[in-house]
Amino acid sequence: MFQFNYFQMICFLWAGLGIGSRIMMVIMGKKWAEWELDSAYTETKPKWIYPVGITGYLLVVYTWYQVLVQDIKLGWVIAVLVSLTTIKVTTLLFNYKTFHGFLKRVLTDKKKMFQLNTVVVIFSCLLMLMGIFVYS
Questions:
Q1: pLDDT per residue rounded down to tens, the chain (136 residues)
Q2: Which end of the chain is more exposed for a tag (fewer CB within 10 A), N or C?
Q3: What is the pTM of this model?
Q4: Where are the domains of the chain?
């Protein structure tokens, strides 16, 4: 039976979230933006951000721990990428109004939204390739 290592799991889960969310955006259309602004990221900071943010920080620490204890070549690459997510987590936790303003600008600008979606899809494809060819 085939078993995924930690770095493959991170690659495939992260890619799945990226591609899955883009598919949902296409299916939902304008309702996606409404859902994000009216439910997920309301004007006032939602309470779910705190546990999710703490979980994000813990994921970074655990990923670096895995770099140290597993003998996986280039594991540090995923650790660096996961570490970069702390920029978003920190903004959500400590500067929510700035994040919310950014979100509004992106969701209401078709060009910016297309650029973001393109980057997410390319990044997700790279993650899948890394999970298949780098971390196998």
A1: 678 999 999 999 999 999 999 999 999 999 999 999 999 999 999 999 999 999 999 999 999 999 999 999 999 999 999 999 999 999 999 999 999 999 999 999 999 999 999 999 999 999 999 999 999 8
A2: N
A3: 0.92
A4: 6-134
